[in-house]
Amino acid sequence: MAERLIPNYRREIRKALPAELFKPEYGSFLWLPFHLTVIGLCLWGIVAYPRWFTLPIFTLMIGHSFGCLGFLAHDSAHGGAVKAIWLRDIIAGVCFSPMGIGPYLWRRWHNAEHHNNTQIEGVDPDHLFTIEDYQKNPVLRWLYRIPPLMRNLIVFGSFTFRMTQQTWRMMITYLRSPKSTAMNKFTILFQWFLQTGFWVALTASLGVNALIFGYIIPVLIANVVVISYIATNHFLNPLADESDVLGTSLSVTLPKWLGWLDAMHMRFGAHVAHHLFPQASPMQSRKIEEKVAEMYPDRFHQMPIHLALKKLWDTPWVYEDHHTLIDPNRGVRAGTLGYGLDNPTKPRRTANREVKDRAKAIRKQNRRMKRDARRQAKLKQTVSK
Fold it and tell me: Domain for residue 80, yes or no?
């Protein structure tokens, strides 16, 4: 039998950890009434005190709570604490409702396809674009023709709707899939209409301010909160041919002054531990990762979230191959985690660009020679007079 190149991380790490780290934990569900209370109080505040200085605060708090409920839904849907699927679906359905992500859709998309095929090209629905995608996608080609600063502003601006966009994309994918039964399709649509309809009806009944500042804008904020983690958890990693949890995931940490948010965010940044043991309590994720770092220091990747976002800003978002990201228009390449990420190459100049540069230098030299000739002529005229 051929030697396994990728270690059996789960087996080795689990043997090295105490069993109590993998026991179900129910305290996290207390965040559900907490965030629902925050949302309710802020909606009341929007209706009762619609001032220019209060609306942004209420909106931000609701948006953050929407995102936090998404983290709670994500954890509960894996079934670590709640084993009954029907109860898991109710909890996930309520928590995901502001973002319109049905529990059936999530189980099929995230639990089955993403977790079982993380960063496997063409199989994981959440990996970044490949060079083949770039060649087929006119919007993507346009993005890489405009200046990098403008492209980054557009890409990072898309964080406000990227989770919602991916949700709709997966809904359409499964609605069109021949593997989906009529009941599957009905469930996807019914859950989405129920969730979205509830929040639209609730906030609209409270007035236009509540609809806009209590639902529409908060959903955009929730998208930013969630995608800031998701993008850093995988978009800097290489693609893979087979499952390699440590190679295809990145864990991120919050700055010390924001460390109190880690528990509220269900330790979502500890993403390596989550992919290793998705049913383990998120409250134990950091402890699990301490052991991972000890056992596999060369394979485990972790960095502060602001540094990961900065690297996303600095690197292109198209895979040239499994280990290389590329700006196809400018020829700028950057490695991925474990493959030279810290050493992006300079743009490779094409022959046409070099010809243009030489022509520009010659024109500049000719202009300088003409200026010198005019000065000499003026000097001779002065001397002759």
Answer: yes
Mapped to the 3 state alphabet, what secondary structure does the chain carry? CCCCCCCCHHHHHHHHCCHHHHCCCCHHHHHHHHHHHHHHHHHHHHHHCCCCCCHHHHHHHHHHHHHHHHHHHHHHHCCCCCCCHHHHHHHHHHHHHHHCCCHHHHHHHHHHHHHHCCCECCCCCCCCEEHHHHHHCHHHHHHCCCCHHHHHHHHHHHHHCHHHHHHHHHHHHHHHCCCCCHHHHHHHHHHHHHHHHHHHHHHHHCCHHHHHHHHHHHHHHHHHHHHHHHHHHHCCCCCECCCCCCCCCCEEECCHHHCCHHHHCCCCCCHHHHHHCCCCCHHHHHHHHHHHHHHCCCCCCEEEHHHHHHHHHHCCCEEEECCEEEECCCCEEEECCCCCCCCCCCCCCCHHHHHHHHHHHHHHHHHHHHHHHHHHHHHHHHHHC
Question: Based on the domain organization, do 231 and 372 belong to the same domain?
Answer: no
Let me know whether 108 and 139 are in one domain.
yes
Report field, pTM of the whole predicted structure over 0.85:
yes
**Residue 133 sits in which domain range?**
9-335
Count of structural domains, the chain: 2
How does pLDDT run across 20-59, given as a tens digit for each residue? 999 999 999 999 999 999 999 999 999 999 999 999 999 9
Q: Per-residue pLDDT tens for 5-25?
A: 677 899 999 999 999 999 999
**346 belongs to a structural domain:** no
Do 154 and 73 share a domain, yes or no? yes
